[in-house]
Amino acid sequence: MTAQVFAREGFQAIGTSSYATAGTLGLHDGQRIALWDTVDLVKRLARRVKLPVNADIEAGYAETVEGVVESAKAVLAAGAVGINIEDSTGNLEHPLYDLAFQCEKIDPIRAMANAAEIHLVINARTDEFLIPSGNSGRKLSRAIERGQAYTEAGADCVFAPDMGDLDIAMLRQLVSEIGAPINIMAGNAAPPMAMLEEIGIARQPGAESNAGGAGII
Fold this sequence. Notes:
With 217 residues, this protein is α/β, with parallel strands linked by helices.
């Protein structure tokens, strides 16, 4: 119902949320749901809403590259034309996946979609700003490093959720140094939409999907 309201109001794409999907099932977020819960939701959205659908597949619901690629393939087959893939492990001692390993997931996902002749919009999420420890400057440099690596591996855009740490200068630096559209969280401290657009906060459309729109979640 919510997706249909968004479509009626002129939104250009629909994205699933792992947090919301888990909530409807009485579960906490953080890969507590099964891949097939997301696949089923994508199928229903694709049937009922005439808009491109982006699927939040969290960290891929697998601990191997092959398993993550199969997860992406499943939501693509269900009707998604975009995915969110994140680098959180759920392990407090090692909160993010190794950078090289995360890139090893993105590259074959791109190859899989290309083989299917679909430009799958890969939105690579880095949770550097969600790690409780560390200063904001160090988090920014690490987020930039990861964003650059993810785009080089084949991601179209980078999602950098935060806890209110990102000011306008940091947003500009993310955009300029990563060199790809940047998605952010829309909180009370977020700049106005016109300023976000001027900074370069955006969601890049896929070549075939027209899955465009502002880069805020």
